[in-house]
Amino acid sequence: MTPTLVRQHPPHAGARPRVDLRARARDWSEIQERMLVPLIEAVYERLDVGAATRLLGLGCGSGLALLMAASRGASITGVDTSADRLDLARQRLLPDDREAPARAETRIVDGPVRAAARPETGGYNVVTAFEPIGCRSGDAEGLGELLAEATPLAERGAAVVLAGWGPPERCTTASVLRVATEPAEPLRSAWRPAHRDDLEEVAQRAGLRPDGSGRVACPFGYADVDSAVRGLKSTGLFDAALSATDQVQVDKELTEALHPYRRPDGTVWMPNIFRYLIARTG
């Protein structure tokens, strides 16, 4: 869900402002990242993540999943392409305050995945990619590229965790994504419904052996519509919409799409089911 810069219109249409990446990273950290906590907890429980775990988090964002692993005693390394999210991860995991609890064997890597190689003998025994695939064209290919870089850093038989959106009929947010992107014709190829075997196909192409899967309820709950709009946009899934139209239009379409999920007290509640696949390196 790494944010990208909004493309500009051709000169005759006038330039559009760039996305405020720092504000978006903050929205991700404060609003959206926690939505996947049930998924992360289910995976860590199933893998018995603990003191013996050497974990590499791909697309670690602002570090919440890493923090959850560290609290179980795991050694953690996180990588991401967003410098702004990594700054927040460092603040969360590597505080300057000397009175804060020390987090042993914690690394935040700003660079390519290969820069996360462990200097000591022994590779990672858990690799996680918690950014769900299955709602954006090309996301499976992007995950495959990450895995091609990451799996050589893992030991033989290491667990590799992939995550994806569940069936569209079980994911309220998927319908919001679709409705909000319909007005812009170029987006018809940007959004797609999740397929049942998305994760298995990625694992197969990466040379990984499936070793179990599961489904987890991850409802998206927001204090109000404004928080929902900010949180959803922080995922980067609406960058194509921002390019094809503008922020005002995207906010309008999102607000309208969210209307059926607004409760009488003003909160927004959208039930979702997410999938995870545990695969093993050869």
TrEMBL record:
Residues 56-129 form the Methyltransferase domain. SUPFAM superfamilies: S-adenosyl-L-methionine-dependent methyltransferases. Pfam families: Methyltransf_25. This is Methyltransferase domain-containing protein. It comes from Streptomyces thermospinosisporus.
